[in-house]
Amino acid sequence: MSRELVTYIVLGSAERLKKLKCPKSNNTEEFIFANFPNNKVSEKQIDDLVTKSNGKLIVFLPPSTFPSTLAKKSLKKISMIDLSTWGWFKFNDNKDIIKNIKKISASLRNIPQLEQGIFFSKRLYFSVGGIGKFQSNPFNELSKRFYSRIDPQNPLPALIIKTKNLNIF
Predict the structure, then answer these.
(1) Nearest to 143 by CA among 128, 123, 158, 162
(2) For residue 35, what are the domain limits?
(3) What is the pTM of this model?
């Protein structure tokens, strides 16, 4: 049994993430910064990060976000069950028109946006062949792959956003 139950991987370039403080890992959580070099995302690098992680449940987060206490408790419970699972976090309630359009689009298509984050079991990730092609919506291909196996969990409470700039580069 792995020591860490949940691994949080913060997606972003080395330049973007050097401005952030990485939370400390403990016996139930592991935090990893992706640190993509030269503002290029490598599918192989993402697969390597997931492979080397200690958690049974992996969470991809955009920079400057963090799960709420309630979401973290839910993730730990999901991890302890040790079944193949996946899902995402709700959108933050926002007055921004563009965010509201993304929210409607995501709810209609059931594909999470980058600012929502996504969680999945490590077992499921590798059973579908990894991340696939990392596009403008990085979770598009991955969620299609997951849907081919199982339906997602109900969305968890929204991520806590510490800045308005959620770009990974």
Answers:
(1) 128
(2) 6-161
(3) 0.86
